[in-house]
Hints:
Layout: H1 2-31, H2 54-68, H3 72-82, H4 92-101, H5 132-148, H6 152-165, H7 172-187, H8 202-206, H9 209-224, H10 227-236, H11 254-263, H12 267-294, H13 299-313, H14 317-330, H15 338-358, H16 363-379, H17 387-396, H18 402-412, H19 418-438, H20 444-449
Helix pairs in contact: 2-3, 3-5, 4-6, 5-7, 7-9, 11-12, 12-13, 12-14, 13-15, 14-15, 14-16, 15-17, 16-18, 18-19
Amino acid sequence: xxxxxxxxxxVQEVCVRAGIWNLKINFMxxxxxxxxxxxxxxxxxxxxxxxxxxxVFRDTIVQGLNEAGSDLEAIAKFLDSAGSRLDYRRYADTxxxxxxxxxxxxxxxxxxxxxxxxxxxxxxxxFAEEDHxxxxxxxxVFNKLIRRYxxxxxxxxxxxxKLLLFLKAFSETEQTKLAMLSGILLANGTLPATILTSLxxxxxxxxxxxxxxxxxxxxxxMAEKDANSVTSALRKANLDKRLLELFPANxxxxxHFAKYFTEAGLKELSDFLRVQQSLxxxxxxxxxxxxxxxxxxxxxxxVLYVKEExxxxxxxxxxxxxxxxxxxxxxxxxxxxxxxxAEQALKHLKQYAPLLAVFSTQxxxxxxxxxKVQEYCYDNIxxxxxxxxxxxLFYKADVLSxxxxxxxYKEAHVAKGKSVFLDQMKKFVEWLQNAEEAGExxxxxxxSMGNWLRPHL
Length: 457
């Protein structure tokens, strides 16, 4: 019995020791660092670089377009569904090359697949009819595609800019279709007017391609909208002053532009450019006049300068008189006290009345001056009570005629301060009407209405 118990105890001890040893081994195994001996790791899918295969993409698009045929609705549906399978974002330039030109384009505009008709499609803009309605239908395909895949908007803008740089590589009819497409898409807002900057590139300007293309584009644009839509977009894009750049340097003048665009049936744009150029000229003229007034240049010199500028820039007198009034009134720092500003104004305006008189020889010029005076007196509250005195001063100094004052009073006044200024002028107008009937000379106004004006005249 004793021997049996001893054996059991020995066995238990061996088992315990074996268990402890196994625990030690397991612990050591857990802390042992793995050894890389020829192990292969699978690359994560996101780390794999996808091959750039525009030709595979091209083949898929060309096949889909050819299967859809001339049915533009079917083409639009194909492009819509294909976007979920194909990487439009990556191959946007290839996509738009095919939709416009029917194949991939090399730098410069030549067709990469020109000799392989199986890699081209005729169901594209360049193979469409040269007709506004036909091109508008294609424009709808682009509209639908870009509305569906908004991220293509910038890529499409870049594509059109690129195609405009490639114009020289396209045939005349292809240029026309691209111009029509661009004009229609500009009209509906799919494209911004900034794409037109590509037309100012030397190589297409020198060849006369830029101007010809612009005419076709603007015609298509105006067929969809109107001239105001075009001019407004040009102003927003700061292109209104760059239109002359459509022509070579030796022809960059308003007369040539006006003749070219008027003969092309775009007189509205000719007139628009003249106005824009005139505005620029007026700003320069105003700046120069302001400088001369600050230096107190003799009036004769200023008259000569203004007349030369009018002749050189074809500025009409009505445009100049308002500018002169602004310059004259800006040349003084006016008193803040209402009771003193009238006297200061009359003294200042008496000095420059001869200058204003030279450029108010037309009825329209006189009315514009009266309206400018009215607006100024309304906008500058200290001058509210000085309006009548200024008008009478100008009447006495032969700046304003009786006819102009009466016309302004009856129908040509502006809304600003109308009731106040008409009330101020009532007695003077009545006197003018009575004097006209009685043949009374203008000088009698001082006697009839008091001598408040005499010190300033």
